[in-house]
């Protein structure tokens, strides 16, 4: 079986991160690969379709005017996380 994986787009300022805690009100705390812990917002179109839990690997886009906040744009499944580790993204 082939695993299709979406990788972060550097031109769009996307980066990988791991959810460390849930805050409620569609907010999570994410530890990004650049070492910064950001408070991230889950947009409405993701909130209705995808459940995000602690220790999930996600793609976030930092805000341009406030670097310690970001938006979550993608959540990876287990096989996709394994692929990312094998290819050296994590």
Automatic annotation (TrEMBL):
<dbReference type="InterPro" id="IPR001253">
    <property type="entry name" value="TIF_eIF-1A"/>
</dbReference>
<dbReference type="InterPro" id="IPR012340">
    <property type="entry name" value="NA-bd_OB-fold"/>
</dbReference>
<dbReference type="GO" id="GO:0003743">
    <property type="term" value="F:translation initiation factor activity"/>
</dbReference>
<dbReference type="InterPro" id="IPR006196">
    <property type="entry name" value="RNA-binding_domain_S1_IF1"/>
</dbReference>
<keyword id="KW-0396">Initiation factor</keyword>
<dbReference type="GO" id="GO:0003723">
    <property type="term" value="F:RNA binding"/>
</dbReference>
<feature type="domain" description="S1-like">
    <location>
        <begin position="3"/>
        <end position="77"/>
    </location>
</feature>
<keyword id="KW-0648">Protein biosynthesis</keyword>
<comment type="function">
    <text>Seems to be required for maximal rate of protein biosynthesis. Enhances ribosome dissociation into subunits and stabilizes the binding of the initiator Met-tRNA(I) to 40 S ribosomal subunits.</text>
</comment>
<dbReference type="Pfam" id="PF01176">
    <property type="entry name" value="eIF-1a"/>
</dbReference>
<comment type="similarity">
    <text>Belongs to the eIF-1A family.</text>
</comment>
<protein>
    <recommendedName>
        <fullName>Translation initiation factor 1A</fullName>
    </recommendedName>
</protein>
<dbReference type="InterPro" id="IPR018104">
    <property type="entry name" value="TIF_eIF-1A_CS"/>
</dbReference>
